[in-house]
Structure formats: C-alpha cells, structure tokens
Amino acid sequence: MKEIVLKVRPRKKVGKEHAKKLRRNGYVPAVVYGQKTPSLPLEIENKSFHALLREGLGENVLITLSMGDQKNGGRKVLIREIQRDPVRGDIVHVDFHEISLTKKLSIQVPIHLTGTPEGVKDGGILQHVLRELEVECLPTAIPEKIEVEVSNLKIGDSIHVTDVKVENAEILSDPQSSIVTVVPPTVFKEAEVAPAVAEEEPEVITEKKEEEKEEEKKEEKKEEKGKETRAEKQSTEGGKEEKKKEQK
Fold first, then answer.
1. Domain boundary residue among 146, 165, 183?
2. Would 72 disulfide with which of 28, 67, 106, 166, CB 3.0-4.6 Å?
3. DSSP string, the chain
4. Are residues 203 and 163 in the same domain?
5. In terms of residue numbers, what domain contains 66?
6. Are residues 22 and 78 in the same domain?
7. Domains in the chain: how many in total?
8. Is the entire prediction scored with pTM above 0.90?
9. Do 12 and 89 reside in the same domain of the chain?
10. Could you report the per-residue pLDDT of 97-142, keeping only the tens digit for each?
C-alpha cells in the first residue's frame, strides 16, 4: 500500500479559542492516540492536509507523522476521523490512530467497479449494492480499493462477496452479500381509464331533464284545474246573481 509522510507539530495549547486561532492562521487542530501511548495534541498545515485528500488518500492510507525529532517523530498512523463544519464544510479537527505494523487490524475498503456490463448494453440497470468490504490484514497490506470486474454480467447476474479475493487480506464481510447486480429495465404501464365513469354524467343529466319535464306537466295541470275552478266559481256566482234579479 502507499505510505506518505505528513509534517505536523505538537500543539502547545488546547481549547476552543486556541483552535479557532489556529484555523485563522492556516492550521488544523489534530490529535494522535494509541493503545500504549498517551494522546498527543497536534496541528497540521491546512494546505498540506488538503493536498493529501485531493490525491484521493484517506482513511486507508498508512501515514508517518513527522515532527522533526526522534522522540515524537515517525509515528505510524491511520486517519480515524475528519470533523467538518456542518455549514461551510471546512475541516475543523482530525483524529489519528497510532498502529503497530506487526499487528493485524480490520478496516473498511471501498469497492471500485470496472467495465460496462453486457446486461446494461441490453437495456438492464446496474445496481451497486455493497460499496465497502471489511477486511483484516497487516497495516502494510491495506489495499487502497478493491476492484470488481463487471463486464461479463448479463441481466439477472450478480457478484457476491464470496466471488471476490483480496491479496494478503481476509474478507470479514458476509460471503453471501450481493455486491452488484444487473436487473431488468423498469416498464411503466399507463393507467387505463374506465369508460363507465365518463358515461355516467350524461345519464344523470337526462334523468334530471325528465324530472323537470314531469314537474312542468304537473304545474300545467294545476294551472288548468285552477282555471276550471275559477270559471266554475264565476259561473256559479253569475247564476246566483241572475236568481236574485228574477226574485226582485
């Protein structure tokens, strides 16, 4: 694996105010700790650490901390955590973990897919399910990434953890876990509109028209009866008047 040297210097003061001052002056607060050695506050030049990250080097890279003296220099470490400002994204603190070169450790290694699957060329969809593998190995044998060739995958094919081998390392992840698979293309069916829904409205309208006609007929009948009644009443009253005249 690739090993790099990072220049650091012990941090004489700790606390939020001193950390803010360091950041304003172009440095990042850090700390290194290990199982057999006490933790040591550090400060790193911001530009140097960002250059390391831009090269794609991160948690799986063995780093030698150089402090310019024999007592504290030459510590072999891995990056344990990088803390960032939640708003601006600036690096605010770095944790280093000192390790032994003769003792195996477990670490997550990223998976890198290579090639274009045959199934994708036929219209299938590539699904990258597992993006890291947990491996156990010596610090000097940590792989930067694990390459998985996917060119021969057809629609319905998958690659599992058990299909992958890592040189000088033991894979700890579940052997049956799927790393990548090619699934058939998704087909969307258009929803069918039921014709009965569109036909209901005219029937309701027709029904309403028929009811209105019936009501009109009833009203006409009432008016006709009213006219007949009034005519009969007038005729009766006229007859009464005639009788009175005759009696006189």
1. 183
2. 67
3. --EEEEEEEE-S--SHHHHHHHHHTTEEEEEEE-SSS--EEEEEEHHHHHHHHHTT--TTSEEEEE-SSTTT--EEEEEEEEEE-TTT--EEEEEEEE--TTS-EEEEEEEEEES--HHHHTT-EEEE---EEEEEE-GGG--S-EEEE-TT--TT-EEEGGG---TT-EE-S-TT-EEEEEEPPP-PPPPPPPHHHHHHHHHHHHHHHHHHHHHHHHHHHHHHHHHHHHHHHHHHHHHHHHHHHHH-
4. no
5. 3-98
6. yes
7. 3
8. no
9. yes
10. 999 989 999 999 999 999 999 999 999 999 999 999 999 999 989 9
Residue 29 corresponds to which amino acid?
Answer: P
Instruction: Name residues whose C-beta falls within 8 Å of residue 56's C-beta, 6 or more positions apart in sequence.
Output: 144
Q: Which residue has the tokens 């799986």?
A: 60
Is residue 188 situated within a structural domain? no
d(CA 146, CA 161): 11
Alpha-carbon span 59 to 152, nearest angstrom: 31
